[in-house]
Design a protein that fits this description.
The chain is an alpha+beta fold. Helix content is 29%, strand content 32%. The chain is built from two helices and six strands. The longest helix is centred in the N-terminal third of the chain and has 33 residues.
Amino acid sequence: MTEVYTMKKLIWAIIAVVIVGGVGFVGIKEYLNVYRSDTAYAVVPATPKKTVTRDSDGKKVTDSQGRQEYSYDYTFKWVTTDGQTRTVGFEQSSANPTPLAPGSYVKADVSKTRVTKGPFSVNAKDVPAKVLQQLK
C-alpha cells in the first residue's frame, strides 16, 4: 500500500514540475518578446490621420481634466544598432497631440512587439552610419 501511495506522490510531483516548468517557459518567452528591447532608429513617415483615442472596449478616452484625447497611430520601420529591422507601431496620444515631423529621425527602445521607451527626435548625425544607410 505504501508503495502505491509513494508512486502516486511521485507522479503528482512530476506533473507539478512539468506544469510549473511549462508556465515558466511560456512566461519567459512572452517577457522576452514584449519587454526585452534594443535601441533602434526610424525615419518618421507621413503624418497619420488624427483620430479619437479609444480604449480596448471602444469607449472614448479622456484625460484627468475630462478633455477628449486624440491619437496619431504611427507604423515605424525600425533598424536596431546591430542591423535588425522591425516593423512596430506607436500611438502618440493626448488632448492635443503634436505630430512628429515627417522625414525626421527618431530613436527608441523597441521590443519585438512594442516601443518600450521613446521615441525621441534625434539629428541624422546622431544615427549610427550603418543604421542610417539602412534607413535611406
